[in-house]
Amino acid sequence: MNGTVTPTSPAPRKPTTQELRLRLARVTYNSLRMAGFEPSFEQILAWQDEARKRQGAPCQ
């Protein structure tokens, strides 16, 4: 048995709210495009804001 130690990798950083919002918008955009729709990225972000307002969450 040798005495080498494997280095531990740092814990992954938790994504910010803005990063999660943009990731969701990109997934939504790609899904809608595959279904034949062509919304703008800004339109998807507006839909997210509208949905957050309806749920009572603050918009970013």
Detailed description of the structure:
The protein is mainly α. 55% of the residues lie in helices and 0% in strands. The chain is built from two helices and no strands. The protein has helices spanning 17-34, 41-55. It is elongated and about 60 Å long. The model has no long low-confidence stretch (mean pLDDT 85).
Keywords:
60 residues; 2 helices; single chain; mainly alpha
Question: Gist?
Answer:
With 60 residues, the protein is mainly alpha-helical. Helix content is 55%, strand content 0%.
Low-confidence parts: none
- The class by helix and strand makeup works out as mainly alpha
Number of strands: 0
Order of helices and strands: HH
**Largest beta-sheet characterization:** none
**What is the CA-atom radius of gyration, in angstroms?**
19 Å
Shape: elongated
Proportion of residues in helical segments: 55-70%
Helix count equals 2
Average residue pLDDT: 85
**Amount of beta strand:** under 5%
Q: What is the first-to-last residue Cα distance?
A: 54 Å
